[in-house]
Design brief:
Blueprint (H helix, E strand, L loop, with lengths): L5 H30 L3 H27 L3 E2 L3 H12 L1 H10 L4 H15 L1 E2 L11
Antiparallel strand pairs: 1-2
Helix pairs in contact: 1-2, 1-4, 1-5, 2-3, 3-5
Length: 129
């Protein structure tokens, strides 16, 4: 994903997440289900989620280094990004609601721009009143 163009960087990030979620959706569901009844699996899930938080804080820092304007404090941006890129979002929209991969990617990109950080010169749309 090495690129100087912030929009291309965002598109690459969204593509990477969408591909990973497509591949991992079923496994993730089984993993989180198993964690509810197995302490060892629950501990692994907890450790994985903490690594994900660390990785997503770094992702927020990368967005900022590419000129993106964060829509709030770093920690809030990272937690919001964590929620958006979670495998559950793919499962909900693509597997549950029947969205195409293209529609999911477009939603994810839009959600990141609206809720986490906007690329230089691209302000998120204002909410309608």
């Amino acid at each position: 994903m090495a690129t100087e163009d912030p929009r291309a960087f965002l598109d690459g990030l969204v593509g990477l997440v969408a591909t990973a979620n497509e591949r991992a959706a079923g496994l993730w569901s089984a993993f989180t289900t198993a964690a509810r009844s197995d302490d060892a699996v629950a501990a692994e899930l907890g450790a994985l989620l903490e690594r994900r938080r660390t990785d997503l804080r770094a992702s927020v820092d990368l967005l900022a280094s590419h000129g993106f304007t964060l829509h709030g404090p770093r920690e809030r941006a990272a937690e919001t990004l964590s929620y958006l890129v979670a495998p559950e979002s793919y499962t909900h929209f693509v597997l549950g609601a029947g969205w195409s991969g293209t529609a999911y990617r477009a939603w994810l990109r839009d959600a990141v721009v609206r809720l986490v950080a906007a690329p230089p010169g691209e302000e998120p749309p204002r909410p309608r009143r």
